[in-house]
Amino acid sequence: MDSLNRISTKTGDDGTTSLFGKGRVKKNSDTIECVGTIDELVSWIGLIKSQLESSRTITFLEDIQKSLFKISSMIVSSDEKNHDQIINVKEIEDRMKSMIEKTDMPGDFILPGKNILSSQTDLARTVCRRAERRLYSLIDKQGKKYLAESLRYLNRLSDYLFILARTFEAE
Question: 25 pairs with which residues across the strands?
């Protein structure tokens, strides 16, 4: 197999994609829309991370990216076991509390755009909210109740990204 064929299998040319050995689904299915939105969020977080110097924040954002990949894996999996053991919502909540103590949080509506990094973080937040809506829809339509903790994680993550953007504005 040549190097291009390892990347471009051409099996998706018909508008379908494979779900890790679980068969093929349409690329516009609810599952693929949800996983694609999470993938977009991972990329936005990567953009934010690439502009930082604080190794503590970079490491935390990398952990978030890894958790998002795990959530995507759980979404496409039909195995309901071990779904609650990889999401650490408390860690995000603890990080938010610490950031709020150090940053003056606004009391009213925010207009994004104070600086590039905070604007990009606000964009990541809106993608996170979209991922949350898509996951909720998937849970609602397909009855995947075992993904509830992932939904909670995305909800907290969007709050964290809001606070992170405000922190970037204060720097």
Answer: 17
Q: What angle do CA 132, 127, 31 make, to 5 degrees?
A: 50
Looking at CATH, the fold of the domain delimited by 22-170 is given as: Hypothetical Protein Ta1238; Chain: A; (1.20.1200)
d(CA 165, CA 133): 21
Its pTM stands at 0.85
76 vs 120, residue with greater confidence: 120
Q: In this predicted model, what pLDDT tens digit does every residue of 59-107 receive, in sequence order?
A: 999 999 999 999 998 888 766 665 555 668 899 999 999 989 888 777 7
Q: Which of 126, 124, 135 is nearest to 87 (CA)?
A: 135
Report the 10 Å Cβ neighbour count for 140.
Answer: 11
- Residue 39 exposure: Cα atoms within 13 Å on the Cβ side: 8
Which residues does 114 contact at the CB level (< 8 Å), separation at least 6?
169
HSE (side-chain half, CA atoms, 13 Å) at 83? 21
Strand-strand pairing, 16-18 and 24-26: antiparallel
